[in-house]
């Protein structure tokens, strides 16, 4: 039987989702604990990959389990997992749906705070620029759904079969004081470090070191900028994954107060 497992994790201690030689990964922890519970080696398949230090407030993987069990797998699995990984749902699905290839939409959020705060240090990207021009940043964000080739904003574009990403929406939000910023983007797929690179470019626009026209010129020409640096990993969250047959609400909270309906206002 194929099962879809809905989870969330804080990526601070891990070198990304995927197994890494001699480095801890989220996949390794989940496979190791499930294999221990079922008393047999068990392989899981994730809906995508996240980089080292990146979080997921919603993530899915599938696993094939033929044997039956007479215990509460949800409870037992959560009990032995570390506190930074949580199982939200275990769902038996008919057929052979694939966690990665059947996903039709993925949403990421990047959180920025512009003041030092020890309670946000592992959950949001710190950039000490108190006067970011969010209106110019918003202009750049608005451009993103108008383009679908993101070759210019990918760390290693030639490693991909193609660099087309169908961005369906992108938005920029701030809190009431403007000291915290949230960049949200949805697409059918993303390239390596694409969102963190875009975020870093938005920050450059906010500080005035990059113009919106220059930013757009790379989307048009598909030429990689001379300087291409990703934003800090701890600000990035895979926040929503949607399937034609499955669209669950997000259960994992983002960062302190950040999921309050009245906390964020669109720029």
- CATH C-level name of the largest domain: Alpha Beta
The gross shape turns out to be: globular
Structural class: alpha+beta
What's the helix count? Answer: 5
Q: How many domain modules? A: 2
Task: Write the CATH architecture name of the largest domain.
Answer: 2-Layer Sandwich
CATH superfamily of the largest domain: Pseudouridine synthase I, catalytic domain, C-terminal subdomain
Residues in β-strands, percent: 15-25%
What is the β-strand count? 10
**Tell me about the biggest sheet?**
10 strands, mixed
Could you state the order of secondary-structure elements as H and E?
Answer: EHEEHEEEHEEHHEE
User: pLDDT under 50 segments (min length 5)?
Assistant: none
CATH fold description of the largest domain: Alpha-Beta Plaits
């Amino acid at each position: 039987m194929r099962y879809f497992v809905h989870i969330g994790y804080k990526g601070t201690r891990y070198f990304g989702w995927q197994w890494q030689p001699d480095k801890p990964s989220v996949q390794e922890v989940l496979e190791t604990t499930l294999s221990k519970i079922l008393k047999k080696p068990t392989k899981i398949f994730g809906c995508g990959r996240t980089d080292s230090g990146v979080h997921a407030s919603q993530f899915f993987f599938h696993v094939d389990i033929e044997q039956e069990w007479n215990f509460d797998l949800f409870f037992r699995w959560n009990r032995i997992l570390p506190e930074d990984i949580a199982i939200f749902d275990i769902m038996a699905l008919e057929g052979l749906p694939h966690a990665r290839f059947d996903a039709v939409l993925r949403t990421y959020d990047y959180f920025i705070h512009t003041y030092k705060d020890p309670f946000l240090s592992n959950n949001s990207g710190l950039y000490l620029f108190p006067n970011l021009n969010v209106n110019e940043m918003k202009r750049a964000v608005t451009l993103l759904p108008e383009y679908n080739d993101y070759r210019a904003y990918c760390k290693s574009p030639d490693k991909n079969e193609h660099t087309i990403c169908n961005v369906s929406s992108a938005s920029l939000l701030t809190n009431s004081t403007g000291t915290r910023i949230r960049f949200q983007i949805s697409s059918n797929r993303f390239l390596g470090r694409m969102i963190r690179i875009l975020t870093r470019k938005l920050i450059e626009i906010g500080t005035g070191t990059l113009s919106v026209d220059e930013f757009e010129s790379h989307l048009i020409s598909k030429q990689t900028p001379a300087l291409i640096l990703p934003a800090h990993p701890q600000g990035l969250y895979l926040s929503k994954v949607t399937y034609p047959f499955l669209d669950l609400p997000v259960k994992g909270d983002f960062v302190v107060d950040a999921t309050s309906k009245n906390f964020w206002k669109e720029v």
